[in-house]
Amino acid sequence: MESETDTMTSTKPYLIRAIYEWILDNDMTPHLVVDVRYPGVQAPKEFVEDERLVLNLSPSAVRALVLGNEQIEFNARFGGVARDVYFPVEAVLGIFTRENGQGMVFPELAYPLPGEPEAEADSVAQVEPKRIKPRSVGTPRGIQSPQGPQGPKSPSGKGKGKGGGPTLKVVK
Q1: DSSP class of residue 74?
Q2: CB 134: neighbour CB atoms within 10 A?
Q3: 104 closest CA partner among 36, 46, 18, 166
Q4: CB 43 within 8 A of CB 85
Q5: Which of 24, 81, 143, 151 is the most buried (most CB within 10 A)?
Q6: Neighbouring residues of 148: CB distance < 8 A, sequence distance ≥ 6
Q7: Is 111 helix (H, G, I), strand (E, B) or coil?
Q8: pLDDT digits (tens, 9 = 90+) for 21-68
């Protein structure tokens, strides 16, 4: 018999919406980090770095934003060209502010890569499908640890990340 917790929906889309509203209420710019390897991601690949895409979700940057329970979709301009973006909620690795990096990181899920064969179920025994192990535990690659909005300063004055861009601060 299934317990009530077995049938509950994921908290992830609710947390994304809550953090998104919190960021806007604080007059800051919400950004999502998306794992573009996740099946079903439809986003401009030319802006991907390290298999991640950082998306500005501010109301002035997107149109027709839908933060659904199963997917996130919107229209935005990339290099001056309007593009439709669509991805499953499970592809989201984090949501944070551009200004100070505060937000939330989600654990990476194991899933088969496109073109990778999944294990076939045996008629006698259940076989676990082949899964990719998450590359990291905790903070996804490309998002720096909570050492300030730009991470530790290097001699160049830029943060540790590529181009000294925004980083994610883990809020407990």
Answers
A1: E
A2: 14
A3: 18
A4: yes
A5: 143
A6: 101, 167, 169
A7: coil
A8: 999 999 999 999 999 999 999 999 899 999 999 999 999 999 999 999
Residues 6+ apart with CB under 8 A from 120: 127
The token duo for 87 is 């991805």
Distances (CA, A) of 27 to 11, 51, 87, 99, 101: 25, 29, 26, 10, 14
Instruction: Please give the model's pTM, rounded to 2 decimal places.
Output: 0.65
CB 105 within 8 A of CB 28: no
Q: Which helix (H) or strand (E) holds 19?
A: helix 12-25
Nearest CA to 30 out of 60, 66, 10, 69 is that of: 60
Task: Compute the distance between CA of residue 116 and CA of residue 119 in angstroms, rounded to an integer.
Answer: 10
For residues 36 and 119, what is the distance between their CA atoms, to the nearest angstrom?
A: 23
Read off the DSSP letter of residue 42. B
